[in-house]
Amino acid sequence: MKKILSLCATLLIAGTVFAGEFPDISIADLKKAIADKKVTIIDVMGSASYKKGHVPTAIDFAAAKASFAKSLPADKNALIVAYCGGPTCKAYQSAANAAEKLGYKNIKHMSAGISGWLQAGEKTEKSN
Fold first, then answer.
1. Which end of the chain has the smaller Cβ count within 10 Å, N or C?
2. Is this structure's pTM higher than 0.70?
3. In which element (H, E) is residue 119 found?
């Protein structure tokens, strides 16, 4: 029985890694990281959506794509968080994968997305 459970756990972990998934971060944990200035946030919603409202301090991935590496911290172990529309949106993966290819090791996904951020009553920043 232990061998079966171990095999199932191994397959589950391997499936998650190969699926291009990244660990989730809660809104509360992201807010703390923002307050502590210990996170780089990447908005993958597109520039029009970004201008209307994004998580405070977030980078517009669409606008920064050409010079993405310059938008990220020098420390490859720094916390990077990508988000998109909400729990079913997978667009965040483009930014998370790009950061991973650049060698970043602490990449997370705010699965709640901008919709969850707003539903939680959190404020957004707007851009021109």
1. C
2. yes
3. helix 113-119
pLDDT tens for each residue of 73-109: 999 999 999 999 999 999 999 999 999 999 999 999 9
- Compute CA distances 69 → 64, 76, 97, 103, 122, whole Å: 9, 11, 12, 10, 28
In a domain, 1, yes or no: no
Neighbours of 8 (CB within 10 A): 10
In angstroms, the CA 56 to CA 87 distance is 19
In one-letter notation, the amino acid at residue 31 is K
| Strand ranges, E, within 4-128 | 40-43, 59-60, 79-83, 106-109
Domain that holds residue 113: 22-119
Please give the helix or strand (H or E) that residue 49 lies within, else none. Answer: helix 47-52
Residue 49 lies in a domain: yes
